[in-house]
Design brief:
Blueprint lengths: L9 H18 L3 E6 L4 E4 L1 H7 L3 H4 L12 H15 L9 E6 L5 E13 L2 E10 L3 H56 L5 H31 L4 E4 H12 L8 E6 L6 E4 L1 H20 L5 E10 L3 E8 L6 H4 L17 H11 L3 E6 L5 E8 L10
Parallel strand pairs: 7-9
Antiparallel strand pairs: 1-2, 1-5, 3-4, 4-5, 6-8, 9-10, 10-12, 11-12
Helix pairs in contact: 5-6, 7-8, 8-10
Bound molecules: adenosine-5'-diphosphate.
Adenosine-5'-diphosphate binds next to helix 8 and helix 10.
Length: 387
């Protein structure tokens, strides 16, 4: 006998499952949306409505790219196509920090995880979205980033100290070696008999001084190596993530952000966290520079492949531009025009970019504001594999 409570038909079963799914969608704190293979939105949870400012009925049936700023807006269809053709996963099952766009056009950082399901022979993608601009989360992440930045600065201080020590100590050590060897020669020239014990002791002194020099050289290269962990990364992904985080609060300060990302592949061999700290710092500086400045407050983040062998990032603002008294020593430590500034950000950025064999510089814009540039060498084939 069939249990009366159990739905008799498959249809009913399906309906019940649907209702259960709907209740999950309605109560989940994270925004959830489902799209099909064509990128068209099939379901949009109440949390997603609150997050993006669209009602579900306004977006269901439309392309999901309406929730992304340019250039992702234009590129999203090709991302899906690329996945369907190659099976190469860039986001599915990985989860990344990306940029979303609300109905009012403002961009904001989100953490996106995408799952994939095949239902009735059709493929669907489910996006779980967490708002990173929520105060709590943001503050935690900002705090983490600041701690990481401090850590980098301490590491580079140690590296700097070791390099200076090595340089300072190598000279007196070389002098000791020269003096002892000269004394040995003078003794042999001026005295008819020099005890072998004396020459032996002098030879030992020379060997020990040489060894001390070796130790310092080792220490120096050890610290240099230990400082970074480098891998091949795609520059646009690195920039996108760092920008999303740096954007927090940008809308509140009335800043419009625009991306102009290069379409060529730009693989770079980098310590991702360090490079993201540089981008993060430059964007925050731009946003801060524009904070008390009249509108428009425009920030442009651009990437480009330059002369085939260099990846370039440009961060441009429409603020007051560089103050004449800091321009010449912009990248020196403790140079600041801010009341509560430490003047360390740009000097650390420079250390990081230098250690990547790159270049960091700033130029005034023609109209207003400043542009900071980062140039990094494109990774060569096979590079980074041994690391
Ligand atoms: P801090 O932000 O603590 O002052 P930084 O090293 O990051 O330290 O910056 C040093 C100085 O460079 C700032 O105080 C400011 O005068 C100047 N500066 C940096 N970025 C910009 C910018 N985008 N526009 C104008 N001035 C800038």
């Amino acid at each position: 006998m069939a249990n009366e409570k159990e739905p008799a038909h498959t249809d009913e079963l399906l309906r019940e499952r649907e209702a259960r799914l709907q209740s999950i969608l309605e109560t989940a704190p994270d925004a959830i949306l489902v799209i099909n293979e064509a990128g068209s939105i099939e379901s949009f949870s109440p949390a997603a409505e609150r997050l993006f400012g669209y009602a579900a009925r306004e977006v269901v049936g439309r392309n999901v790219h309406i929730l992304m700023p340019s250039p992702y807006h234009e590129r999203h269809d090709s991302y899906i196509r690329n996945y369907l053709e190659t099976g190469e996963r860039r986001i599915i099952g990985i989860g990344r920090v990306v940029v979303g766009q609300r109905k009012d056009g403002s961009a904001f950082p989100i953490e996106l995880s995408v799952g994939e399901a095949i239902i009735g022979g059709k493929r669907h993608f489910t996006g779980f979205i967490r708002d990173l601009s929520e105060r709590q989360l943001t503050e935690n992440r900002l705090h983490e980033l600041q701690m990481e930045l401090l850590h980098v600065s301490r590491l580079s201080d140690v590296g700097q100290m070791a390099a200076t020590l090595a340089h300072e100590l190598n000279q007196p050590l070389a002098a000791i070696i020269n003096y002892v060897q000269a004394t040995r020669r003078m003794l042999q020239a001026e005295m008819s008999h020099v005890s072998p014990k004396v020459t032996e002791a002098m030879d030992k002194a020379v060997a020990q001084a040489a060894r001390a020099g070796e130790i310092i050289r080792h220490l120096r290269s050890f610290i240099r190596r230990g400082e970074t962990e480098r891998q091949i990364e795609e520059l646009n992904n690195v920039v996108e993530e760092a920008t999303a985080l740096a954007l927090v609060g940008a809308k509140e300060s009335g800043v419009n952000v625009r991306w102009v990302l290069g379409t060529e592949p730009m693989p770079v061999l980098i310590d991702k966290v360090q490079i993201q700290q540089v981008v993060f710092n430059l964007i925050r500086n731009g946003v801060e520079a524009m904070a008390d400045h009249p509108i428009p407050r425009d920030l442009v983040v651009a990437t480009a492949l330059v002369e085939m062998d260099t990846a370039q990032i440009a961060i441009s603002d429409s603020g007051p531009g560089l103050a004449p008294n800091v321009q010449a020593q912009l990248f020196q430590p403790f140079v600041t025009t801010k009341e509560r500034g430490m003047g360390l950000g740009l000097s650390i950025c420079k250390t990081i970019i230098d250690s990547h064999s790159g270049r960091l510089w700033a130029d005034p814009n023609v109209k207003r504001g400043a542009t900071f540039y980062i140039a990094l060498p494109i990774a060569r084939e096979g590079e980074g594999k041994a690391i």
